[in-house]
Amino acid sequence: MNDAKIIAITQPTITLPPSDELFGQIRPMTAEEFICYTARVSNPSNQMNTETAPKLLKYLIRNRHWSPFEQVSITMDITTTRDIAHQIVRHRSFSFQEFSQRYADPTKDMGFVTREARLQDHKNRQNSIETDDEKLANDWLDKQAANMGVAQNAYEWAIRNGIAKEQARAVLPEGLTKTRLYMSGTLRSWIHYIDVRAEEGTQKEHREIALAAQNEILKHFPSLNEYWFPKVEIRDYTGTKKRCEHCFAPIEKKPWWRFWS
Ligand SMILES: Cc1cc2nc3c(=O)[nH]c(=O)nc-3n(C[C@H](O)[C@H](O)[C@H](O)COP(=O)(O)OP(=O)(O)OC[C@H]3O[C@@H](n4cnc5c(N)ncnc54)[C@H](O)[C@@H]3O)c2cc1C
Question: Listing from the earlier edge strand, what are the strands of the sheet with 178-186?
Answer without folding.
Answer: 3-9, 73-81, 178-186, 95-98
